[in-house]
Amino acid sequence: MKKSIFKPFILVGILSISLLSCENKEEELYDDSVQELQDSPTKDAKYINELTQTSFEVAKIQKDGHEYHFIALGDDDEMIVAETLYGEAANNKEESLHSIDQSPFNLFISLTKTSVSIPDRIAKTASTSELQSSGRQIENNAALLEINDPNYTNIDQKSCYDIGATTFMNSYCGGVPVTSTPTDIRFCDNGLWNSLTRSSFYGGDWKELDDTYTRTNVVCGLTRLQFYAWENTASWPFSDWKWVLKYQVDLPNGYWYYYYYTSTNTERQVKRTRPYNTGNFRAYTRFY
């Protein structure tokens, strides 16, 4: 959540009523200026398209035909969870085993044995009570944790893996109509697309939300998936709001789930493009 910044005042001696009145007016004017500096995105808003924060994979887990990648962003608690299918799960076009109600911590716990320590960055996404009740040890080693399925089999997919518009809509968009609320904004774009931008915009207003969930069926070629956040790129007391690229990945032919978890409420945007102008994609996007 974007925080308001209040100008500190030092009270020296006894102030007269007139001085207090002037001070109150100054404070009101200051609050108004802060509000103006926090305007919502406009059509001509600028973008920062270069990644300004580091990302690194914390854990890779294969289980029952589902492969998960836990990717830490920056230095705080932001995290990407990517999921794809292999073996018979891919053959049968199974649904994700991951619920959007699960934090990365909850998902990790459900996929691993109690003897497995939790990487520190994943542990940061848990509440204190959840961490204590799990009884798990925290691993501060920065090395990648890999748990591979001994029965892993990679099924060679067709050169153009197309789920189809109807199947995508019914199975991956939850059917029609796709309903949204101010705190849960959904888009089902089950047609074939070359480029697509979706934003946390609902009912004529921008909404400040924290998490994003995407499903993408890449039909031939590569599709670039990008997550943006509306942020002030200047230092206080200055203001320069822009769309800031937080994470991007090039997805090959297939079907991909990407969850972006944060603890900051702001306007959000997801872009999908074709970096080499080949292939198409179908998409589902959810801001919540």
Automatic annotation (TrEMBL):
<protein>
    <recommendedName>
        <fullName>DUF1566 domain-containing protein</fullName>
    </recommendedName>
</protein>
